[in-house]
Every structure is written in structure tokens, then in C-alpha cells.
Amino acid sequence: MIDFCLVGAGFIGPVHAANLAAHAKARLSWVIDLNLAAARALGEKYGARSGSDLAAALADPDLDAVIVCTPPRTHAPIIEAAARAGKAIFCEKPVDLDLARVDACARVLAETGVPFHVGFNRRFDPTHRALHDAIRSGDIGRPEMLVLSSRDPEISPPDYVAAMPYGIFYDTMIHDFDMLRWLLNDEPVEIYARTACMLDEKENPHRDPDTAMVVLRMSKGALVHVNSSFRAVYGYDQRIEAFGDKGMLISGNHHPTSLERHGLDGIRRDPLLHFFIDRYAESYRRELDLFVQAVETGATPPIGVEDGRRALMIAEAGVRSAKSGVPVALQA
Amino acid sequence: MIDFCLVGAGFIGPVHAANLAAHAKARLSWVIDLNLAAARALGEKYGARSGSDLAAALADPDLDAVIVCTPPRTHAPIIEAAARAGKAIFCEKPVDLDLARVDACARVLAETGVPFHVGFNRRFDPTHRALHDAIRSGDIGRPEMLVLSSRDPEISPPDYVAAMPYGIFYDTMIHDFDMLRWLLNDEPVEIYARTACMLDEKENPHRDPDTAMVVLRMSKGALVHVNSSFRAVYGYDQRIEAFGDKGMLISGNHHPTSLERHGLDGIRRDPLLHFFIDRYAESYRRELDLFVQAVETGATPPIGVEDGRRALMIAEAGVRSAKSGVPVALQA
Amino acid sequence: MIDFCLVGAGFIGPVHAANLAAHAKARLSWVIDLNLAAARALGEKYGARSGSDLAAALADPDLDAVIVCTPPRTHAPIIEAAARAGKAIFCEKPVDLDLARVDACARVLAETGVPFHVGFNRRFDPTHRALHDAIRSGDIGRPEMLVLSSRDPEISPPDYVAAMPYGIFYDTMIHDFDMLRWLLNDEPVEIYARTACMLDEKENPHRDPDTAMVVLRMSKGALVHVNSSFRAVYGYDQRIEAFGDKGMLISGNHHPTSLERHGLDGIRRDPLLHFFIDRYAESYRRELDLFVQAVETGATPPIGVEDGRRALMIAEAGVRSAKSGVPVALQA
Amino acid sequence: MIDFCLVGAGFIGPVHAANLAAHAKARLSWVIDLNLAAARALGEKYGARSGSDLAAALADPDLDAVIVCTPPRTHAPIIEAAARAGKAIFCEKPVDLDLARVDACARVLAETGVPFHVGFNRRFDPTHRALHDAIRSGDIGRPEMLVLSSRDPEISPPDYVAAMPYGIFYDTMIHDFDMLRWLLNDEPVEIYARTACMLDEKENPHRDPDTAMVVLRMSKGALVHVNSSFRAVYGYDQRIEAFGDKGMLISGNHHPTSLERHGLDGIRRDPLLHFFIDRYAESYRRELDLFVQAVETGATPPIGVEDGRRALMIAEAGVRSAKSGVPVALQA
Fold first, then answer.
1. What is the pLDDT along chain A (332 residues), one digit of tens a residue?
2. What is the reported pTM?
3. Does the distance separating the beta carbons of B217 and C194 come in below 8 Å?
4. Which of B143, C319, D31, D324 is deepest in the core (most CB within 10 A)?
5. A91 - beta bridge partners?
6. What ipTM is given for this predicted complex?
7. Using CA atoms, how far apart are residues C192 and B154, in angstroms rounded to an integer?
């Protein structure tokens, strides 16, 4: 049985808590949050101790692992503290928003040698993974083009946007930057990005980019396109298309039901799921399961700190291109 | 160049006239209709002679073929006259609504030896034909079940219904009875039918069945289901499903466009085509082309009088079952 | 917290055990099976007591509910014992294979007044339920036709088949007989059934029907078709189509992923799920959750003994029709 | 009746010839080709005069219109000669590959005032047009992103490639450049393009780009992506996706049949059509019909010389970006 401390009781925290509760080999033993009420509520629901002091939890000799669900800028110190306490770490992406800070983290992780995983959850979605496996097994031959559509139904609240300018790169497309590396098993050598503010002043008061189109060249030659928006009113839209000299693969959207309604106005299906937590519910379960397995068996967790660093590098270069209007080179 | 006389300028007549006009090896030279104005209008459009006297057209030594598009009860005498005049005949289904009358026709056709084709147009639809060819080539192994959905958007006008009681068998499902024979290359040995009047008094004043479900057993063992309705408000719904020991095939509906609309209320496609002439436009073209080829090369046209007789026999037995409430045996 | 005793550790038992373990308000406290090793293995996995003596478990005053997953012929005595012990009961379908025995059970349930639920799991599938709700909310107006395709990838082992002749009615289509009652909120007044043995001697040595087509008439007039097979090599195929005067609804199959592969040989999707437990995983979760809620709140569980009786009556009448070759009347 | 002279009997010429033959108000009266045998063969098939001397045909006072299907570099002189002869002109795209030459043509057309149409056939495809009309009618609100996938199954023969370097811009994506202007009713202000040579030396001996990704910014703010390849082994792949603040529209591929095959290896549909002439058969029919209508009624044909010039300007700027590696500005 692997004992977990969940740090961060809001947003994605309860998802991991529920998955831990349902997992045969894991146990939620601590919930830590600066918001003590939130920590307590979640702790009580699953019979875990709760508090606002991470150090207390890390001092628990029975604790095996920490799962970090706090806001991005707090990840690095939590990672370092947990690593120094010898705990295995599952950290929601990103490691940090600053490359130098990520590097510092990486050094601590290297010194302590604790198991570390960055939560790029999309890699664990059954359809995206089937796409990945089909590419690897040669279904489309040599990959030549990759097209990722990555669209959220709405923009984050203004204070969240203010805290992370160019969040469409750092918070959203960073998933796609990870996916393209993973799917193509390759690194980009160039990125070009164009952004726009399509939402009005009320929805997007900070005029932070809410729409983006990106083109990347990979070191092995493939071309990649990513498009992203914070206004997919029809639902959380997540599609990937891989094209090669032997064919094409499409990882399409998931539907809440398969119901088809035929009426005078045509044929209708349900809207897409609206919330990423619903769309990727299965991914979160599988990701946690693989992390638990890794901790149990001593294997390396699926996604390491270098993966976190690489995705951030691409996001940073993309922001520089968006600001300058010209392509930016990347080191493969 | 094959010279055609079109008999019957209404409804399906203009479809054949347009296809003849566009065909490289056929020519519309006569249009005959008791409604002289209709005959003239169509004749003028395509540069053909027109009139109400079939005998005049049949006396034309340049005339090669007759295409019969008049109401069902007039088919037999026209067939016989055309056969005796030595013309090739393309007759819209049914040959007649009375089996004895069909037999009489068949004798004249046998005596005269003219090329004869019954217009079961669905056999020429590209998707239904692909289904047929896939069954023949063993894609699903031995066929075990066949399910046909055959639904019209509306019932015929009251006088048309009055002229042909149980038209859902004689006019609509007769197509399916032909299809099941052709698809399975087999004959039914039993039919059970249940009907209902679902439309209200105004739409269906004669209370003729407007809804039907049928189960048939084939001589080689397959079970077949047909369902039919005169009230598919969402469009002309025509699907066939063939199930065997190696798999299943579905011939689905055709869509006017492939446009998908994603909005707040879900994902929408166009309604199905509403009119059988639009749905089967390509079938009518291919059917005529094959008939022209047969006449030109001296080959036997695709669907003979025996096929017309068999489909009518099944329809008749189905009506007897619907009336009696018990299954009716058929001679394979 | 509702304490459960699981009776029957094979087949569907482990599914319920896992769902109980993951449920926030339920606890698996006992596993009973005549096969003591099986009971023990499952009990140990979830920290429950195990044994082969149901009486011992029923004597546990902390026990709230029993979930019955044993072979059909053992259901009735277990139900009666559990009812007399005052426990809430979740019983896998059928209640029994004999109507008189079901009636005896029903009397004990009425006397004791314990909460009782029959596990027709399909009612809890999200897509089937969306279909149900759409019918109820008037999406298709008055229902006129219902078509259910209910096909298993393989036949049960010979001894299972021998123990339940005409299992395609009693074990498989009984689900569809329940669904049609639930979806149409109506009772059948007539059933006609035709069956066939399509599997060879080796696969189906008892020559029990492995293929069936059924037509039913409902008291409010709708016509219903069910087709079933034990040889859907392409996967567990479960579709329902409801047709009415305002449109049509289709509850289609579920796919393991949404991946599309485009290659020289066409466009390919994954095969359907092969196993009913995978296809209906979500249904089992939701069903148990609703049962737990009912027990907790004192509400009546969703599906009562009368529902079990009605579905069995239809199956029985269907078998009589299949044997006699003529339709059989049913009391609405 | 509008009398046509077809100039260029190869490739797309026979498509227009067949459509003219089937058109009620048009007649093919001349076929001109430097390859006299090709001109004769096509002329004989449709009962038209044939020859290699365009002047002879243009001198025919009964001739109303010229349809230009010759190689791109010959379009301009033919257009000018036909315009000076007072004939209506349907010219396959492009007008010319050189902007100055297009401008010279435009002056002659302006002076002579003859009806002129550039054959951007995709605008007449029923699905693309439904997409266009849905955008215009506000279905997706303000368009924010447009994604066009434009992939050919194979590269043109080496001599054709040699005659038109960067043909992926000038010959293929020029269609998309026209589509994006038409769909968005807007002009681009910037284009960025990246290309690659993915085909091997044998298939692409001139190492001309065979793969391309493009991002454009439109004057009203929308972002546009085009991706193109000469190696879609799975068929002619033509999709357009329009995203706006009220939803998304997808113009998907067309399928030769709707047949679905369910087997052990999954669910299979036919490959896409392989040839643009099959995919766009209906577009060519509708385009010609609208041109005939325009000539008959004196209306302006749908796509004028300025549209031809604009699409070429975008292609040119795209090539400059591909060569320089930086975005290129365009005048709206």
C-alpha cells in the first residue's frame, strides 16, 4: 500500500483524491492546503489527516509519495522539500514557469534520486495512446505532418490570467508541446507562432492572447501545426492528426453518449464534454495507476523532469515568436 | 444509338427522360402519355415526338425500346403491346399487382423473346451493390440475419392509396422483398407480418396499413427482418444490415453533404434526403446504363420477369399473414 | 456506510466487489461462495470476511444488504433467506426461471418489505438512458417502432447451455424484453419468435437456438423487433432504435477509442468491445450507486420483482411461439 | 443554346465536354488542341468540329463561349484572343503564373467586357458551399480560425513539376488561398510558410516542395492554417474547418459509398476517392451550369479575374516566405 499526501485541495486535487481512494494499492493519508477548510473537507471525505503544514506531512515516516496540485509557481519549492524528505513525487504540470527554476529542481531531484513524474495527463488517454502506439508500430510509416487542435470552452478567471501571461502557451499548448515530442519521438528545431485576442474586454480584460496558431519544424523533418482557443463554445475540443507516407491517424473527440437524434432539423449528437476533467477522467486514472506501479516496483515513472523542461522551452520559444513575429530556433 | 419511347410522363418519367438525354448511346425519341400536355412538355424539352397513342410510337420502325412509367395496373397491356411490336422493355416495378396477370405477361415475353427488365432500382445503388458484392465475396461468411429498414417520409395521396390497398407491401416493401432475394441469393419459405395504422384519419383516411414489421425465413436458413413506415419525418430512411458468421455489413443512409455543425446544442448533420428520386438518383442512372448496354450487346437485362413475379408473391403472402395474424408458407 | 454481503464470487461477482470497494458509502464486508477458495480470494482482496455459509453472513447484525450473483436457479432461496433476515437485496437477473417460483419470492418480499432490486443493468447505461429520457421528453413524439439488436460474440459453455435451454430468450433477450417495457412504458400483447441453430455441432452441441428474431405488438400499438445472435464475431453488439411520429433515436455501440486509421485499404476503427462487462462497466457502477442511495434513503430501488416477473413472462411466451411457430398472446 | 469551344482535350477537358453534352442549354461545337488526334477523338465523341487552330473556331459567328483547359502558361494568350473575338470565357485556374501577365489579361478583359470566369471549382462543391453559407448566415458567429487540409494522393509527373516550381503553392494551395478569401470574405495581410521534400529522389527528382504548412493572418483578424501534401496514400483528402465565437463547422471528406464492414479487425469504410475529378464531379457540373446561366442571362460569372489575381498573389507571397523562412506581408 502506497501512502500519499495530496498537496492542493482545489480544482484537480479532488480528482486525484477520488482515484487514490478507488485504487487497490494506494491510500490517501494526508491532505495539505493553505486553505485549511478545503484540506479538512477533502481529508474527512476520504479518512485522511489534513492540515496546512507540508512539513508535518513530510515528517510522517509512513508517507511514501506526494502529489502536487497547487498553483504552478509553488511547485518547485514543494518538489524540493518532498525530494529532500525522500518521497516519490507526482507533480501536475508545469514543473515551474521559469527554466532556471526547473533546472534547480532537476538538480535536487538528481541528488535525491526520488521517483518523479510530471502530470502531462494526455499521454494516458486511451485514444491518444492508441495513436501513439500506432505511429510507433509503423502504421503510417514515417510521420510527415502532425496537426493538434487544442481548444478550451472558456478562458480562466482574470486573476489566474494575470498571474500567468501567455497562458495559452504555458498552461494549454504546453500539453501539445509535450504530445508532439512524445508522439513523434523527436524535438522541434524551430517554432513560429501567431496569436490574437478574440474575446472581448469583459471576458479577457488583460488582453492576453486567447487564440493561437503555431507551426514547428522537427529535427527529423516533420512539420507540426497546433491551433488553440479559449472559446470553443461547443465543448472541450481535443483532436490530433498524424500523417505519414503510409497513411493517416486521427485521435478524435470523445462523446458523452453515442445517441443519435434524427429529426426535421437533421441528425444531432450530444455536445462534447465541456470540462477537461470529464474528458480526461480515464487518463487521470491510468496515469495515477502507472505512477503507483512505478513507486511500488521501483521503476522510473513515465514522464520525467527533462520532459517538463523541454515542453517549457518550446512554450517559451513560442512566446518569443508570437511577440517578435518571426520564427525562433530551438535546440533539438 | 438506342431509340426510346417513354410511356408515362409523370413522377419517375422525367427522371428517365433526363438520364436518356445525358446518355451517350441512348436517345429519347417518343413520349407517350394519356395526358397529352404532359407528354408534349416533356417531348419538347428533349426534342422527342409526343402523343397519347402508344400504337403510333410502337409502329415507328426506328424505335428500339420502351420504358414504362405509368401506374401499376397499366403495365401489363403496355408490356404485351411493346413485346408484340418487338421492342426491348424497361418496366418500372411492379409488372402487375395480380400474379395471374404477371404470368400472362411472362408468356408473351417468352414468346416474343424481347429484352425485358423490371425496375427494382435499389439493386443499382452503389452502396447496396457494394453490400451485395461483399456478401458474394464472402466478407461475412454465411449470411445468418438480414435487417432492412425501409421508411418513406410520407404516405401517398388518398386516391393512390385507395387504388392499391396494402401498398406498404405492394409498393414499398416489394423493393425489400426483391433486395433480400438478391442479397441472399435465396428464396423465403415463410413470412410473418404485423401492420398498424399510426397516421391519423386525415393523413390516412382509408386506414390502410402505414407501418409494418415482417420476419421471413429463407430456404437456406437465414432469418430476415423488414420494417417499414410511411412517416419518417427525418427523411427517406433506407438501411440494410447483413450479419454472418464472419462479420456484419451495414449499407447506411446517404447524406446530402458531409457538413458537421458543432454548437451549444451539440453536433448536427443535414437531414437525410427527403425524396426517393434524390436518394436513388445514381441508381436510376446506372440502371438505365446497364439496360442500354444489354440492349446494345444483346445481353439479358439485369432483372427479369421472374424476379418481378417472386417479389410480388412475397408481398401477397405478407398481406395474407398481416390479415390472418399467422405466418404464411412460401414455396422456395 | 452500507455493509454488503456478496453471494457468488465468480463471473459478475468481482465486478460488483470492485464497484463496492470504490464506492464512498458502501463496504464489502462478506463474500459467500460454495467454492470456498473463490470466496476467500475475493474476500482477501477487499478486506472482507469470506465463507460458504450464507446463514452466517445473514446473522451478522451489521450487514445491511446482499448482492446475489450466483447461477439463476439459486436466486430464489437466497432472496427468501435474505429477505427473512431483513436485508436489502440486489439480485442479478433473472429472479428465477420459473414464474411460479418468482411469484413465491414476490410474496416473501411483500411480507418482509425489504428493499429489492433486479439487476437489469442495461437501463443504467448512459446512452440507453439518454434514449429513454429523450423518448419520455417527447423527442420522437409517439413511439411507433422499436428495433433492438442484441448480439453476443459467443455462445456460453455447453454445460451452461444445457442448464438453461432456450437461453437466448431466458438469459439474453430477457434484457431486451425488460428494455422494451421500460423504454415504451408499455406491455406487449403478442409475441412472435423464430429461432435457428447457426453454430456448428462443436460450438453448439445441444442444438439450442443461437439465433433469434422476434416481433412484438405493444398494448398502445407500437411494433417491436428484437434480433439476437451468439456469434457476433466483430464484438458485443448492442443497439436500440426508437422511431416515432416526430423522429428517430439511435443508441449506438460504444467504441474503446475514437481512433481512425486511414490507409490504402480504407478507414478503420477499433473493433467493438468484446465483453459485456467492459461494454456495460459504467452501467454496473451507476446501478450499484443508485441501489446504495435507495438503501441509504429508504427509497424504493429502481427495478422491482414485478419487472423481473414481466420480463420472464415475455421470454416464456417467446419460447412458446418459437416452438409452435405461431404468435402467442400476452396479457398486458 | 450556348455554343462552346473547348480548348485543351486532355485531363480536365473531357470532364467539361461530358458536362456540356449533358447540359440542356449548352452545346459543345468545337474542340481545339495542338494534339490533333486528341481534339478529333473528343470532337467525334460529342459531334463537335475539331482542329488545332483556335482562330478558326473563334471566327465561327455561332460560337458563344470558350472553355480553356490547356496548360497554365498558355491561358493568357487564349483568353486575350477569345476576349477580342467577343466570346465568353471559362478559364481553368490559374489565369497565369505571372502577376504582370494576369494584369495584362485583366486589361483586355476590361476593354472587351466579355463574361469571364476562373475555374476555382471547389467553391461549387455542395459541402464546401454549405460551409460557406453557414458562415455567412452567422452559424459560427465571427470566424476566428480556419483550418484547411488539402492533400493529393500523388505528385505530378516530373516534367509537369519542372514546368512549375513550387507547384504545391501555384497549383494546389492556390485553391485553398481562393477558398479562404471566399469563405471569410476577407484578405490576408501576412503569410508564413514552411515546406519540406518528403518524397524520395525517384518520386520527386526535382526536389520541389511536396509538403507544406502555412499560417495566414486576415485583415479582420482571423488566423488561417493550410497544410498540404502530395502523398496522401489513403486518397484525395480535402477538409475545411471553420471556428468562430458561436461554434465550429467541418466540411469533411466525401465517401464513395456508406458501407461499413464490421469484422474481427474492426470497422472498415471504403478508402476516400483517389482522384480530384471524382471527388469534385458534382462541383464541375454545378460550376459549368452557373457559367451557362450567367452567359445566358447576361449576369457576371461567379469568379472574376481579380479573384484569380488575388489567389496568385497569396501563392507568390507564400513561396517568398518558404524561401526566406520569415513571414511576408500582403496588402489586403
1. 899 999 999 889 999 999 998 888 999 999 999 999 999 999 998 899 999 999 999 999 999 999 999 999 999 999 999 999 999 999 999 999 999 999 999 999 999 999 999 999 999 999 999 999 999 999 999 999 999 999 999 999 999 999 999 999 999 999 999 999 999 999 999 999 999 999 999 999 999 999 999 999 999 999 999 999 999 999 999 999 999 999 999 999 999 999 999 999 999 999 999 889 899 999 999 999 999 999 999 999 999 999 999 999 999 999 999 999 999 999 87
2. 0.95
3. yes
4. D31
5. A68, A118
6. 0.96
7. 28
Backbone angles phi, psi at B130, to 5 degrees: -65, -35
C-alpha–C-alpha distance, residues D213 and A226, integer Å: 11
| Contact residues of C toward D, CB < 8 A | 233-235, 237, 262-272
Interchain proximity A254–C253, CB inside 8 Å = no
Q: Provide, as residue numbers in chain A, all residues whose Cβ is less than 8 Å from the Cβ of C246.
A: 263-264
Q: If residue D238 lies in a helix (H) or strand (E), which one and from where to where?
A: strand D237-244
Given an 8 Å threshold on Cβ–Cβ distance, is B257 in contact with D24? no
User: Which chains reach chain D with 3 or more Cβ–Cβ distances below 8 angstroms?
Assistant: A, B, C
- Per residue in C111-164, pLDDT tens? 999 999 999 999 999 999 999 999 999 999 999 999 999 999 999 999 999 999
Whether the CB-CB separation of C104 and C77 falls below 8 Å is answered with no
Measured between CA atoms, how close is C232 to chain D, in angstroms?
Answer: 9
Q: Which residues of D touch C (CB under 8 A)?
A: 233-235, 237, 262-272
Q: How many CB pairs below 8 A link B and C? A: 99
For residue B115, give the nearest of B327, B326, B304 by alpha carbon: B304
Angle (CA) C68-C69-C70 rounded to 5° is: 100
* Facing residue for B263 by CB, picked from D246, D252, D258: D246
At B72, the amino acid letter reads P
| Cα–Cα distance, B282 to A73 (Å, whole number) | 63
Pairing of strands B188-196, B247-251: unpaired
> How is chain B split among helix, strand and coil, in percent rounded to 5?
40, 25, 35
Query: Which residue intervals of chain D are DSSP H helices?
Result: 13-22, 36-46, 54-58, 75-84, 99-112, 126-136, 158-163, 167, 174-184, 276-279, 281-297, 305-324
Q: Do D147 and A151 touch (CB under 8 A)?
A: no
